[in-house]
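README: folding subset

This subset contains proteins for which both the sequence and a predicted structure token string are available. Records are stored as plain text. Below is the entry for LytTR family transcriptional regulator (114 residues), shown exactly as it appears on disk.
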Amino acid sequence: MRRLTTKRAQHEYDPQQVLYLIGNINYCYLYMANNEVILSCRTLKWFSQRWPHFLRVHKKALVNLDYLMAFQPGGKSTATNYITMADETQLEIARRRVPDVRQALESVQIGLLS
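--- output ---
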């Protein structure tokens, strides 16, 4: 259990219960497994440096690979690739991050690649 201190509150949570994080300038929204959303005054970079088991899939998204349900390739090189999380949210994968995402999926969860 870790404690996250924001300007207005302290949150205690288990990082393994975080599905994904969405960045918005200098803030992050942490989407939890229990459908709770926590606003943090930390940046995605701050979280990505401290949580190495999370994967950066876009400049605005950091995901927990444990909750990744599907990888949907775009087909053409200019088409958008998506991943689907456990809460059925689809997140876009940045084109330049697709090789890193594929490599992470091959090493962690081979069954998701199609």
